Structures are given as structure tokens and as C-alpha cells.
Amino acid sequence: MGRSGRVTLSDVAEASGVSRATVSFVLNDDPRQTISAATRERVMEAAQDLGYVPHGIARALREGSSRIVVLNVDRGMEGNFSRSFVRGLDEELAEHDHILLVRHGQAIPEATQKVLDTIAPRAVLRLGEAYMQGHAPDEQDWENGFAANAAMQIGHLAERGHTRIGMALPDHDFPLTEARLGFAREAGRRLGLPPLECFVVPRPREAGAAAVEAFREAHPDVTALAAFDDDIALRSLTALRDLGLRVPEDVAVIGFDETEYGSLVTPALTTVHIDAEILGRIAARNALGIDIGGLAPVPGRIVVRAST
User: Fold this and answer.
1) pTM here?
2) CA 225 to CA 105: how far, in whole Å?
3) Cα–Cα distance for residue pair 158/288, rounded to 1 Å
């Protein structure tokens, strides 16, 4: 074409030898217009050869919504779970000719609304929204859902003979903190364990060590820590080492939502791996009103390393 930039209706019109209006009628498949089959074929071939992509906003006005699905991921929700969820959601949407837009962090509501007004999305999702709204888990959740993954962490420690377990939490609220803690407590109750002892492991390193030391002094009978996520688990490992304690001989530690860093420390971190790709695909189909077929969540699994 001798120039760069986005291909327009005018480019297609020039290449096919018809008016811009005719191109618009053909590409929009306007039923009110009588256009010959030969002209339609010529326009479609020109559009394909030039790589013409319909303008998203124009198509949104025509269809009532765009082919964009928005996923909001709250700050603190980034991790292996969210990455695999996004991967499945993105791939499934692409298979049905839709595009995923991921927004990270807690955006200003006014700014969010401007984005939504501009792109007119097909659907707006929020990662983990059901649990943030107090969704009570059913037995399926306890078999292969979020509750089951939380229970798996506590169960792994119980299988190794730990009855007094501490829950190491982040120093600021995450959207799913309450749900995670509730599931862990219920898992302990189902296993007949004493109530979990909870405490916060803050940043920086010195503060984390002080918090772990204070917790150990208050609860000397606790022999294992179940961390909110791998980040908190790594902080706990560092604090225990700084205090001269051995892992797992003195205190066992298990993480959650596996990251690559857990395998690089000494002792290597035992953790819970969650593959949420199927959940992303299910969310995509639900958003588009498509039957989920035989798709079902994949159970999490324990990655056993040296820390337990």
C-alpha cells in the first residue's frame, strides 16, 4: 500500500473499486441494502487481502456491546492462580472471537466507568468476586474448589502429625483474606484440630522476625505454619532462620499458590499448586452464554519440598 497504519474502509473501497458506503453495507451485512453477490465477493476479498479489522467502537454501537470482556484483578490477587485463570479466560474468549482486557489494581470508580462507557464490554468480571461477596462453599467447593485447596494446605500438615498450627497472614487486607482464613479454620475443625492461631508477618525483614518471635513466645506449642501465600511463607522462613530455628525440625512451613521462588530457597518451600486455567475457560463460556460442556475444575495438589 505504500503506507503504514490501520487499514480503513476507504482503503477497502479503493481496492475493490466501490464506494465507502458500499463497503460499509457489505461488511456490516446490512439487510436493507441490495448488493450483488459479485460486489460482495470483491469487497470481502479486498478486506481480507488488506487485513481490515472492524472498528471496535463502531461495532459495539451496532451490536449493543463490543467483543471485549473485562477482568478486574484486585491488588494482591496476582499470582500463579490469577495467571493461569487469565490464560484460560483469554484463550477461550479468543476461540469465540472475543478479546480480554485485564485491569489490575483498585482503580478509581470514575476512571473505570469511563473505560466501560468507551468500549461497551460484553461482560465485566472480577477475579474471586463470589468469595468476596461471602459465597458459602458447597460440597463441590470442598472437593475441587477454593475451599478444597485451602483445606489441602492444613491437611498436609495434619498428615505429618502437626496438631497445633499457626496461620501466617499478610500485613494488609487482601480481597480473599477472610475467605481463605474461614476455609482454613473449617478445614481444621473437620480434621478435629484445635483452632488455628493467627498472626501477621509484616515487612521489612526485621519486623517479620520480631513478629514470628513474639508469636513463638505466645504459642510455643505451635509446630507448623500455614502461610496465606508463598510470599508470606518466604517471609516466615527468613524470620525463622534469623531466629536460629530449624525448618522443618523446629517449625514446618507450607506456602500457597506456588511461585517459582519457593524452589530456590533453602530449605525449599512446600506449597499448594493451583491450576485455574479451566476455571478461566468456564468463566469465559458463562460470560458469553455458552454451555460449559464437560469442563470441570482441576483439583489442586501439594508440591512437597523440604520445608515440611
Assistant:
1) 0.77
2) 29
3) 42
Query: pLDDT value at position 3?
Result: 39
Report the distance separating Cα 127 and Cα 216, nearest Å.
35
Q: What is the pLDDT of residues 229-254, one digit of tens each?
A: 999 999 999 999 999 999 999 999 99
Dihedral in degrees, nearest 10, Cα atoms 302, 306, 307, 308:
60
pLDDT, greater one: 105 or 170: 170
Name the grid cell of 208.
517479620
Buried b (16+ CB within 10 A) or exposed e, 78-98: ebbbbbbbbbbbbebbeeeeb
Cell of 213: 518471635
pLDDT at 64: 54
* Mean pLDDT, the chain, whole residue set: 88
Using 50, 70 and 90 to split pLDDT, how confident is the model at 2?
very low
CA–CA gap between residue 140 and residue 147 (Å, rounded): 9
Chain center to CA of 73:
7
CB 154 within 8 A of CB 193: yes
Q: What is the DSSP letter of 163?
A: -
Q: Which residues share a beta bridge with 303?
A: 271
Amino acid in position 94: A
The three cell numbers of residue 92 are 477461550
Compute how many other C-beta atoms are within 10 angstroms of the C-beta atom of residue 26: 22
* Residue among 143, 146, 142, 144 nearest 131 (CA): 146
CA-nearest of 101, 97, 35, 31 to 70 is 101
Dist CA 170 CA 25 (whole Å): 57
